[in-house]
Design goal:
mainly alpha; Arc Repressor Mutant, subunit A; 7 helices
């Protein structure tokens, strides 16, 4: 996708923000022009509304890829966190089951599933697959490492 100079500048500024928020708007981008730029970026899936803050947008992995940032998942991984524990379990050759993940993190099953769907898949862009062997727990695996 061909980005405008404004779109590129907004995405580059968001890439520098810890939560990837669009916060640095040019002084000349106000009112209807700002709405038009944000709408076109949202329609192209370059940005999405923040779940935590109304009327705040964050860059998506698609938006970051559009400006050449492709290793967000590797940079976003913080050592020693429960998220890092999940990633470590899911990248093993044998993968991980929900009971293994709940035991390792201390989280409940719904929290593990939410973390996989939200933090790992949506935010980090990781691809998680699962298979269900007969008579055994479902096994989850990360099949890609770069967002």
């Amino acid at each position: 996708m061909k980005l405008t100079d404004t779109q590129r500048a907004l995405l580059e500024a968001a890439a520098q923000h810890p939560q990837k928020k669009l916060t640095n708007f040019p002084d000349t981008l106000k009112g209807g022009a700002r709405i038009k730029v944000l709408s076109s970026m949202h329609n192209a899936e370059l940005i999405e509304p923040s779940a935590a803050e109304p009327e705040v947008y964050v860059a998506t992995s698609t938006g970051l890829q559009a400006i050449g940032i492709t290793n967000q998942a590797l940079r976003a991984k913080r050592e020693g966190t429960k998220q890092a524990i999940l990633i470590e379990l899911l990248t093993r050759a044998e993968g991980a089951t929900l009971p293994q993940m709940t035991e390792a993190t201390g989280w409940q099953v719904h929290t593990v599933r939410g973390a996989m769907a939200g933090a790992l898949k949506k935010k980090l862009g990781l691809e998680i697959t699962s298979d269900k062997p007969v008579g055994a727990d479902r096994i989850y695996r990360i099949t890609n490492q770069a967002a």
